[in-house]
Design goal:
homodimer, alpha/beta, Spermidine Synthase, Chain: A, domain 2, Rossmann fold, 2 domains, 5-stranded antiparallel beta sheet
């Protein structure tokens, strides 16, 4: 059957698939300095944020993404005190990061302040930690911010960006990874959303190559379901400045002092486990 | 944007989401005694089979489903010699089952012979084992077939059915599970597709309750990505007649004599690992 105008659809032209959500009403529509930001109310997924036609998040399932972008990296690093989120304007990743008691300072470096303001209005549950004294906000170019960061000053960099086309392209390239490496303390790590293991193995492989070229020596990919993103299956790739990212602080993860819906010590291990075809594609990289 | 007529869409009315695939052409359309069967050629997913408007499988991603419906169960049972697939008319699960050397006899009990004939024509890669001398086909009512099966005659029953509405409803109910229990040998197990962990926790919980009421005492749920099914995340639930289904023959799985793209010993363990919110929902069931 065809979907009428009561549906919002995001077609993934390259792979000939589309994901749609049935809409009650449009709540917000603006064109910021950088992009078009829309918010819809859906019948089952709660609110939906769309940027330039791409689904960013919904109330229903964002917990998976935000937990998996933060906790695995923070339990991989031995003592994550200073964490920088590049992108992540909806504040959901920041909130998860601030659940960690080790964290002394977290920066959210988002290019478009409007995304954060719209999130504060429409996704208040993601912004509950915005007034945490450890939270810091910078609105501007994340690539430049990392480039200018003091050498060896950051423990964990989380790249919570849109797809590697358009404004976010530079976040998947060697010069950015070089800046990250320089900005990270010894044993520092980076984690970056790395698209779908079903659709985008070439992007993931490209990231491995670029990270290695920039000087990272240890990579690992996490896979997890993400209903609203193309193929419904997503990944994040970790890279270590000079330490492995395939091991993590299991005991701390098992005894974490906060609740989570998707992440657990077991799920961390499980997410690091890759299907044979993915493992083969990344072998020796 | 709206999707035009060049897309096939499956809306999931209950949850207000839809998955769509861009179509090159329709290759087949018939109404069998039981249902409407369509086959499309898509731009990226290869061929697509649709039954009564619901996506059954595509060339691109069926390997995940078929591997996860067969190998975990067969490596959980200590010596699966006789395996019965209820449903599974596309023959993909049968093919995976027959990769196991232990299997002496496999039955595919599918209500609609036309599904199998259409699969043979349009999905020949799934039907490569149809002439295996161990393969047996019965076209007719699976519920009745299991009910009439000799007591304690089957090692593994795989319920590879459509959703628990319409013709498949009886496959999710206590009387069917009672027949399964009776037909299974000691240590026999059942595995059944159990819908989406994001959408259908109530169905999964209902299955646990019904299985327990029928006399099964051990259940475990596997979760895995499945792009073309609602929410892109799917599950299968195992139940043991009188033995645990949370352990499996790790050594055999690690040293399996055949290739697989998604299944591995590690992925089996990983699929058995459930997110906290799913674990909690099933706790004590």
């Amino acid at each position: 059957m065809a979907l009428d105008k009561t549906w919002f659809s995001e077609p993934c032209a390259e792979f000939g698939s589309a994901f749609s959500l049935k809409i009650k009403e449009k709540l917000h529509d603006e064109t910021s300095e950088y992009q078009r930001i829309e918010v819809y109310d859906t019948v089952y997924f709660g609110k939906l944020m769309v940027i330039d036609g791409y689904v960013m998040l919904t109330d229903k399932d964002n917990f998976i993404y935000h937990e998996m972008m933060s906790h695995p990296a923070l339990y991989t690093h031995s003592n994550p005190e200073k964490v920088v989120i590049v992108g992540g304007g909806d504040c959901g990743t920041l909130q998860e990061v601030l659940r960690h008691e080790n964290v002394k300072k977290a920066w959210q470096v988002e290019i478009d302040e409007r995304v954060t303001r719209v999130a504060e209005e429409h996704f208040p549950d993601l912004c509950l930690a915005n007034n945490d004294p450890r939270a810091n906000f910078f609105f501007g170019d994340g690539i430049k911010w990392i480039e200018e960061a003091a050498e060896a000053s950051i423990d964990v960099i989380i790249v919570d960006s849109t797809d590697p086309i358009g404004p976010a392209e530079g976040l998947f390239a060697v010069p950015f990874y070089r800046s990250c490496l320089k900005a990270l303390k010894p044993n520092g790590i980076i984690v970056q959303q790395s698209e779908s293991p079903l659709y985008h193995m070439e992007i993931i492989k490209g990231m491995y190559t670029a990270m290695r070229e920039a000087g990272f020596s240890n990579m690992a990919t996490l896979q997890f379901p993400q209903c609203v993103y193309p193929s419904g299956w997503w990944s994040a790739t970790l890279a270590g400045k000079d330490s492995s990212v395939a091991q993590f602080r299991n005991f701390a993860a098992k005894n974490k002092p906060f609740q989570s819906k998707f992440y657990s010590e077991e799920m961390h291990q499980s997410a690091l486990t890759l299907p044979p075809y993915v493992k083969e594609a990344l072998e020796g990289m």
